[in-house]
Design a protein that fits this description.
By secondary structure, the protein is of the alpha/beta class. The chain has 12 helices and 20 strands. The radius of gyration is 23 Å and the shape is globular. It binds aspartic acid and magnesium ion. Magnesium ion binds next to loops.
């Protein structure tokens, strides 16, 4: 049996992703893991995602019924997925001889703003959860959902939102936070593309934020923000083994220059040409984009002969909203030419050590150039370099960068730290 998560905690939030509760046997396995934790004397709060691909199925169903489903009804629909898995896990725990109670997000006191399908947690009134824990129960909280105190309506937190539920509960309860999934932690690259990718023992919040933002699927971006803001150390680990996973916290791997290569194939690049070259033009475009709730990533602007050209990337699911935003911007700035490129993917190199090691970007570009891979857009932060390349070239680019930066090698620091 693995050791209890951390000595100084008496409560632990255990979150299990959709593939960990995909069928009846897996639900029983999750129940067993929660009971094993309870048997070690911990107070256990379980948060589970919807079973398997339930959420995708519900979204598809909604789109069959309506081309423009209302956000409120979408949330009524999607929140059911997590209620199902939660109730089933509670039943399985009861059969193992332990008391369990399942709660919806709203019953668990998870309050959010009123932004349907992408609500933010604003507060947790944890008294009901605490009372049930005090009674010795294992408390199951339906992930990915809450309630807006303002509208009294059920909300959901955006795709992958159960991670945010877990971190917010851990912050509210002063609990340890364990995120279980079908991957054993955070890897130096997606092991499906790079089989020799290595599991990182530690990743700093800042690196994890960049990783989640640039395509790593282990943790939802907002959950990492919550963890950093509240100082919650997150242990990302496997549902199906007891091995140690990755700790996300203040400290990363000190001597590792690069922590990982991530990729994202779910972005679309919009290019607007013929924008007037005057102060406020970009502000007008991005005001409209923000008003429509679009999450913009890379932005590139270039001015040639008095006309500006602006490119930016958005997640695939925000494409309709981005189109609407561009319409609005055109109403103010006049007609422009709008192009959409659906054939690009992004490859990013992330590592806190970049700050003190010049030449990382140059080596990245050289590595890709040697493979004849053309770079369409480049974006950087102090600890990240991202390149947009042809979607079909993404796997090759990831493999080449992983090899060029020798990420399969254990950083030298490790030995010293372990001793
Ligand atoms: N079930 C939701 C989703 O698929 C939330 C989650 O899995 O965390 O996005
Ligand atoms: Mg998930």
């Amino acid at each position: 049996m693995a050791a209890a998560p951390q000595q100084d905690f008496d409560t632990v939030v255990m979150k299990f992703g959709g593939s960990s509760v995909a069928d009846a046997d897996k639900i029983k396995n999750v129940a067993q893991r929660m009971v094993a934790m309870r048997e070690r004397g911990m107070r256990v709060v379980g948060t589970v995602s919807a079973m398997g691909k339930t959420t995708d199925g519900l979204i598809a169903l909604a789109n069959e019924v309506s081309a423009t489903p209302a956000g409120r009804e979408m949330d009524m629909l999607l929140s059911t997925g997590e209620r199902i898995s939660c109730a089933l896990v509670a039943m399985a725990i009861n059969d193992l001889g332990y008391e369990a109670v399942s709660l919806t997000g709203s019953q668990a006191g998870i309050e959010t703003d009123a932004a349907h399908t992408k609500a933010k947690i604003t507060n947790i009134r944890a008294d009901r959860v605490v009372a049930a824990l005090d009674e010795g129960k294992i408390v199951l909280v339906a992930g990915f959902q809450g309630v807006s105190p303002e509208t009294k309506d059920v909300t959901t937190l955006g795709r992958g939102g159960s991670d945010a539920t877990a971190v917010a509960l851990a912050a509210a309860l002063g609990a340890a936070c364990e995120i279980y999934s079908d991957v054993a932690g955070v890897y130096s690259a997606d092991p499906r593309i790079v089989p020799e990718a290595r599991k990182q023992p530690r990743i700093s919040y800042d690196e994890m934020l960049e990783m989640s933002a640039s395509g790593a699927k282990v943790l939802m971006l907002r959950s990492v923000e919550l963890a950093r803001n509240h100082g919650v150390r997150v242990h990302a680990r496997s549902t199906f083994s007891d091995e140690e996973g990755t700790w996300i916290g203040e400290e990363g791997m000190e001597d590792a220059i690069i922590s990982g290569v991530t990729h994202n194939e779910k972005e679309v690049v919009f290019t607007l040409t013929g924008i007037p070259d005057r102060p406020g033009a970009a502000a007008t475009v991005f005001d409209a984009v923000a008003k429509h709730g679009v999450n913009v990533d890379t932005i590139l602007q270039n001015v040639v002969h008095g006309v500006a050209e602006l490119s930016f990337s958005v997640p695939t699911e925000d494409v309709p909203a981005a189109r609407a935003a561009i319409e609005d911007a055109q109403a103010e700035l006049g007609e422009m030419t709008v192009e959409e490129d659906h054939d690009l993917g992004k490859v990013s190199l992330i590592g806190a050590g970049m700050r003190s090691h010049p030449g990382i970007a140059a080596k990245m570009f050289r590595t890709l150039a040697d493979l004849d891979i053309n770079l369409r857009m480049i974006a950087t932060s102090p600890i990240k370099v991202s390149c947009m390349v042809k979607k079909s070239e993404v796997p090759t680019a990831v493999q080449a960068l992983h090899a060029a930066f020798e990420l399969e090698r254990e950083p030298a620091e490790e030995e010293a730290v372990r001793g």
